[in-house]
Write a structure and sequence with these properties.
Elements: E1 9-11, H1 13-26, E2 31-33, H2 38-49, E3 59-61, H3 75-86, E4 90-92, E5 99-102, H4 106-116, H5 122-136
Parallel strand pairs: 1-3
Antiparallel strand pairs: 2-5, 4-5
Helix pairs in contact: 1-3, 1-4, 1-5, 2-5
Length: about 140
């Protein structure tokens, strides 16, 4: 007798960002810039790659990422960041709200990841791909 296929897990935008920030914290990452479209472009890239990540075939992302044609930012990303700040998962570190800091400690991040119920390794893969995509882009504020 073969095992039944695992049920698909729906993940909302808020859950996706909670999982991402939790996994990033567990990897020792604390802060990111959301200047220009660097952050949003990295999020869009991992959103598209999610089905190919470990466990991604059992995950259904219940949201869409549509970057603005001119500015490159995404309303979905901005709303999820605002919700994460309201839940004290992240904070905005400067008056222009262009830098974010993860507020979770490692224990809380681990607890939140387990509660999400995503397949093991999924959010580790999301975090790894995000870091790769994020670092691949140059920060316009750092260019002189």
């Amino acid at each position: 007798m073969t095992a039944a296929p695992a049920a698909e897990i729906k993940i909302t935008a808020n859950e996706f960002f909670l999982g991402l920030f939790s996994a990033l914290k567990l990897q020792g990452q604390d802060a990111f810039s959301i200047r220009a479209d660097r952050f949003d472009a990295a999020i869009k890239e991992i959103y598209e790659k999610a089905p190919d990540l470990p466990g991604g075939d059992h995950v259904s992302l219940a949201f869409r990422i549509r970057p603005h044609q001119i500015y490159g930012d995404s309303r979905t990303v901005r709303r999820a960041l605002t919700a994460a700040a309201q839940r004290r998962v992240i904070s905005f570190d400067n008056p222009e709200y262009l830098d974010i800091r993860i507020q979770l400690d490692e224990l809380d991040a681990d607890r939140k990841l387990r509660r999400l119920g995503a397949p093991q390794g999924f959010f580790d893969g999301v975090a790894d791909e995000f870091l790769r995509a994020y670092r691949q882009r140059r920060d316009p504020a750092a260019v002189h």
